[in-house]
């Protein structure tokens, strides 16, 4: 199957999964049903502009149609995770998401008692949600601070300087979802 056929099949699959007819999508993007049918069958290659319109109408990012199927459903085995590091920290950080070329990054962070993610609170762009899996976590976000236990989570705007510290007697294990990716 050539690239046009793969692209067309992905568009058709997404359209059908949303119970949208060919003519409904064509109307939404200001094209004819005939044109869209040719795109879906791999007989016509949409321009980048047309592909953006299709992606917008279907509510998916344009890259959804451009990345290989294998990349969309990437399985990352625990022993194959990429290790990353915070500046000036000995914490263990593993990338749970496939890579940093996505719209979101998921990391597992392990801190020993008394250890912090950074020496001084640091900001980064985007938003973050952190879930405590094991141990006790102290987090400073701007002028506020919170203490969390296993099962607790916190969602915050990451552009506010923040810092995480293990205030427990055992290893702190947490999962953080960060968008957009920052490492």
TrEMBL record:
<dbReference type="InterPro" id="IPR011051">
    <property type="entry name" value="RmlC_Cupin_sf"/>
</dbReference>
<dbReference type="Pfam" id="PF01381">
    <property type="entry name" value="HTH_3"/>
</dbReference>
<keyword id="KW-0238">DNA-binding</keyword>
<dbReference type="InterPro" id="IPR001387">
    <property type="entry name" value="Cro/C1-type_HTH"/>
</dbReference>
<dbReference type="GO" id="GO:0003677">
    <property type="term" value="F:DNA binding"/>
</dbReference>
<dbReference type="InterPro" id="IPR014710">
    <property type="entry name" value="RmlC-like_jellyroll"/>
</dbReference>
<dbReference type="InterPro" id="IPR050807">
    <property type="entry name" value="TransReg_Diox_bact_type"/>
</dbReference>
<dbReference type="GO" id="GO:0005829">
    <property type="term" value="C:cytosol"/>
</dbReference>
<protein>
    <submittedName>
        <fullName>Cupin domain-containing protein</fullName>
    </submittedName>
</protein>
<dbReference type="Pfam" id="PF07883">
    <property type="entry name" value="Cupin_2"/>
</dbReference>
<dbReference type="InterPro" id="IPR010982">
    <property type="entry name" value="Lambda_DNA-bd_dom_sf"/>
</dbReference>
<feature type="domain" description="HTH cro/C1-type">
    <location>
        <begin position="11"/>
        <end position="65"/>
    </location>
</feature>
<dbReference type="GO" id="GO:0003700">
    <property type="term" value="F:DNA-binding transcription factor activity"/>
</dbReference>
<dbReference type="InterPro" id="IPR013096">
    <property type="entry name" value="Cupin_2"/>
</dbReference>
